[in-house]
Amino acid sequence: MSKIKAGGSSKNVHNNAGQRLGVKRFGGQKVNEGEVLVRQTGATKIAGEGTYMSRNFTIHAAKSGTVGFKQVKARRFTGKTERRTQVVVE
């Protein structure tokens, strides 16, 4: 016989705010240096010319210009090549 009453289970307690990920500046838009272009989890999109990727995989504009997106072939560690979206600022 238990000396402690059953604790039960809690439901609907995960009330965390979303991370607001996604593309912030779209193709053809003008941007200034340092602006956030893409917030992402992991490198789903890769940084191209005129951009750089920070530690949390956010892609920023390295210079002022116009945003563009290109499809490129990227080689994985295993040697397999995949199509990836590359973000560029021209």
Strand order of the largest sheet: 1-3-6-5
Helix content: under 10%
| H/E element order | EEEEEEEE
User: What is the number of E strands?
Assistant: 8
Q: In percent, how much strand structure appears in the residues?
A: 35-45%
Which class do the helix and strand fractions yield? mainly beta
Major sheet, described briefly? Answer: 4 strands, antiparallel
**CA radius of gyration:** 21 Å
Alpha-carbon distance between the two ends: 73 Å
Mean pLDDT: 92
Q: Judging from the principal axes of the Cα atoms, what is the shape?
A: elongated
| Number of separate helices | 0
Poorly predicted residue ranges: none
Give the key terms.
mainly beta; four-stranded antiparallel sheet; 90 residues; four-stranded mixed sheet
Description:
There is one protein chain. With 90 residues, this protein is mostly beta strands. The chain has strands at 22-23, 30-31, 36-39, 45-47, 51-53, 59-61, 65-75, 81-89. The strands form two sheets. The chain has a four-stranded antiparallel sheet with strand order 1-3-6-5, with no helix packed on it. Strands 2-7-8-4 form a four-stranded mixed sheet, with no helix packed on it. A hairpin with a 5-residue loop joins strand 7 (65-75) and strand 8. It starts with 21 loop residues before the first strand and ends with a strand.
Short description:
This protein has no helices and 8 strands. With 90 residues, the protein is an all-beta fold.
